[in-house]
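B., you asked whether I could sanity-check this one before it goes into the benchmark set. Here's the sequence:
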Amino acid sequence: MAAGDVITDLNRMNMTYFPHFPRVRQEMLEPSTRKRTQDEVILAFSEEQAQEEANRCFSCGTCNACDNCYLVCPEPCIVRLDRSNGLYKILVDYCKGCRVCIEECPTGCLEGVPELDFDTGVVRMDTAFAITQGLHGRQAAELKAVPDRMKEI
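And here's what the prediction gave me:
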């Protein structure tokens, strides 16, 4: 992770969709060996252990194309694009701001952003990636390049 990267807050993630996998225990040098050497006490993961530990990653703030937003949206406003790239578009003119997609997103990559062009007192949300620097920076730049009334995630 580069300096300044921001990770999505755990409270924004929907942990219901993540199975619990315990940490992979790293092997340690025996105490008798530790007395005689200056070697590392905690040994490195094997390739298999490293892969198993990496599989525990939640991919915080990054869309993993799980289709939850597409499946739970009560309006026809989330459009699934080519399945091979895992991209979706949100048609904000149809979005009622119910935030179901935001609540069901396991990685916390969706955020409700208040619309600015509605009458006072009208609550409606434009749903988009969280516009923050760090891990979202590239996605935010791509999002800003999409036409106003259709946002790609």
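One thing to flag: The CA atoms of residues 30 and 41 lie 8 Å apart. Otherwise nothing jumped out at me.
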